[in-house]
């Protein structure tokens, strides 16, 4: 316990008034006006000033306060999202350990676990993956008796041990992060030789670690200048993720924000309309207006809409068909696809995002017959659509944790 000079304590109370409580400090919620303010736009931050005063006077800064201050003097950064095999996935270089060991991870807004291949992984599953060597990291520490086990929506799975180590993402150093090390990885995941693990960034969802541990997003938010991250994925090109700030050079016009649904465990929001051009351009275009729930998921390749919406889209392409033996919409590769517009403000032709037809021609399904597969598919009766990469590369997306909302903006598409 350190005794403080009296005026410091007084200063603390002055500047803390009106601030929200942080744990360990009880703060009265009220407002305090200082009559002789020189700079009206200067907003005092009592906690930062307190920490600086403590440090200056040689006192120990409480850990919680230090974390808060690091957030106030917050960081931001951006990092590339490399496209893999025709936009099947996007991978980002992430450093694990001290010194950082660089792995190519899939940043996934649809899950909350950070797991990697490691020296603990079954050699059969490890094959060619770059993997984490905890023995080579001076900051790696195993969490005794903690385990993790995850099963993704496509029935792939992985499980293993839990560690803590420093993670370096977009130039931001996140100490003491939960790092899940794989013992076993299902073939569906391990046969993706490009990907060395997954870094989950879901909203409000606990990781699959038992007993419960903080997620990377929990730890990262404490360090950021602002509680946001952004995704700027690109069609067959390298895009970027940004953390702690919204880079105005990455979009045009205004950002259309949509609130997350109550108790969201993912980046789940409602969109309120969609537009499908008719095959005959002289016919009037139809806007369908209602409310549809959707999840923004960087870790999913396709745009998976309610089955009836997908059917409506493909009805506008005379040569498209639903191939029931494999359960996908397909069309001749020569087909020119219409754009698909998704509305956010409940008005036909109002604020909307546009997915170019070119992006909806996802990949060749059968070389011999020159058949292609659609980037829009049905969601097999799930209660929400999944706005995967086909959609996300068409827009600039803001994942706003602080304000519980997702934002979409236009950018020039190639
Ligand atoms: C592993 O990498 C080697 C060398 O790059 C390559 O020859 C081999 O085919 C790869 N194995 C698999 C399963 O991809
Ligand atoms: C890990 O550390 C060992 C022992 O210091 C060293 O020989 C090896 O090269 C390191 N491996 C990597 C991938 O850095
Ligand atoms: C881990 O589990 C073992 C066996 O159940 C137990 O003896 C040990 O105390 C546990 N360690 C911790 C840190 O919980
Ligand atoms: C690391 O994080 C864990 C889980 O939040 C916490 O219990 C532990 O005290 C932290 N260690 C350090 C050195 O901050
Ligand atoms: C979101 O859409 C779903 C239907 O998909 C609807 O049941 C729900 O009421 C909507 N929520 C809001 C807040 O509009
Ligand atoms: C449906 O897909 C299967 C497997 O790719 C293919 O053999 C078949 O020809 C397709 N059907 C049509 C009508 O194209
Ligand atoms: C659709 O995509 C395939 C595979 O990338 C490509 O070969 C084909 O030319 C594309 N079709 C059109 C109309 O652009
Ligand atoms: C993108 O620009 C178009 C044309 O100006 C506009 O109608 C649309 O609402 C914009 N979309 C977003 C998400 O701002
Ligand atoms: C914004 O619009 C200008 C003019 O059309 C264009 O040159 C620029 O590339 C756009 N910026 C982005 C990030 O799309």
TrEMBL record:
CDD domains given in the database record: Aspergillopepsin_like (cd06097)
Any one biological process term the GO annotation gives: proteolysis
Alphabetical keyword list: Aspartyl protease, Disulfide bond, Hydrolase, Protease, Signal
Disulfide bond entries: 333-372
Signal peptide start and end residues: 1-19
Family matches, as InterPro entries: Aspartic_peptidase_A1 (IPR001461), Aspartic_peptidase_AS (IPR001969), Aspergillopepsin-like_cat_dom (IPR034163), PEPTIDASE_A1 (IPR033121), Peptidase_aspartic_dom_sf (IPR021109)
Single GO MF annotation: aspartic-type endopeptidase activity
Active site (catalytic residues): 108, 297
All copies of domain Peptidase A1, residue ranges: 90-409
Family matches, as PROSITE patterns: ASP_PROTEASE, PEPTIDASE_A1
Family: Belongs to the peptidase A1 family.
UniProt-listed PANTHER family: ASPERGILLOPEPSIN-1-RELATED, BETA-SITE APP-CLEAVING ENZYME, ISOFORM A-RELATED
Protein's name according to its UniProt entry: Aspartic peptidase domain-containing protein
């Amino acid at each position: 316990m350190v005794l403080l000079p009296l005026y410091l304590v007084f200063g603390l109370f002055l500047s803390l008034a009106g601030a929200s409580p942080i744990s360990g400090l009880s703060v009265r919620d009220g407002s305090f006006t200082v009559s002789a303010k020189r700079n009206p736009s200067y907003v005092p931050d009592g906690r930062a000033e307190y920490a600086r005063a403590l440090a200056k006077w040689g006192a120990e800064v409480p850990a919680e306060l230090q974390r808060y201050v690091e957030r106030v003097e917050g960081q931001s950064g951006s990092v590339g999202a490399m496209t893999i095999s025709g936009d099947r996935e996007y991978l980002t270089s992430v450093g694990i350990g001290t010194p950082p060991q660089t792995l190519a991870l899939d940043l996934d807004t649809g899950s909350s676990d950070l797991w990697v291949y490691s020296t603990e992984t079954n050699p059969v599953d490890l094959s060619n993956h770059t993997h984490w060597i905890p023995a080579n990291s001076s900051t790696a520490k195993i969490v005794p008796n903690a385990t993790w086990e995850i099963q993704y929506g496509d029935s792939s799975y992985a499980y293993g041990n839990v560690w803590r180590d420093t993670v370096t993402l977009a130039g931001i150093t996140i100490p003491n992060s939960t790092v899940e090390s794989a013992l076993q990885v299902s073939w569906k995941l391990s046969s993706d030789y490009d990907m060395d693990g997954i870094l989950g960034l879901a909203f409000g969802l606990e990781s699959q670690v038992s007993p419960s541990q903080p997620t990377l997003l929990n730890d990262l938010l404490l360090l950021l200048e602002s509680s946001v991250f952004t995704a700027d994925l690109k069609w067959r090109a390298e895009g970027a993720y940004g953390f702690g700030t919204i880079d105005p050079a990455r979009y045009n016009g205004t950002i259309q924000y949509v609130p997350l649904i109550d108790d969201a465990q993912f980046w789940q929001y409602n969109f309120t309309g969609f537009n499908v051009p008719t095959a005959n351009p002289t016919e009037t275009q139809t806007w369908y207006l209602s409310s549809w729930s959707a999840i923004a998921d960087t870790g999913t390749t396709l745009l998976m809409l309610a089955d009836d919406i997908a059917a409506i889209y493909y009805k506008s392409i005379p040569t498209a068909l639903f191939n029931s033996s494999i359960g996908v919409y397909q069309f001749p590769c020569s087909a020119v696809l219409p754009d698909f517009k998704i509305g956010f403000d409940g008005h036909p032709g109002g604020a909307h995002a546009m997915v170019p037809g070119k992006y909806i021609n996802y990949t060749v399904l059968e070389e011999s017959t020159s058949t292609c597969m659609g980037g829009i598919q049905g969601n097999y009766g799930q209660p929400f659509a999944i706005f995967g990469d086909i959609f996300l590369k068409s827009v600039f997306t803001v994942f706003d944790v602080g304000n519980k909302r997702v934002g979409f903006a236009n950018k020039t598409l190639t």
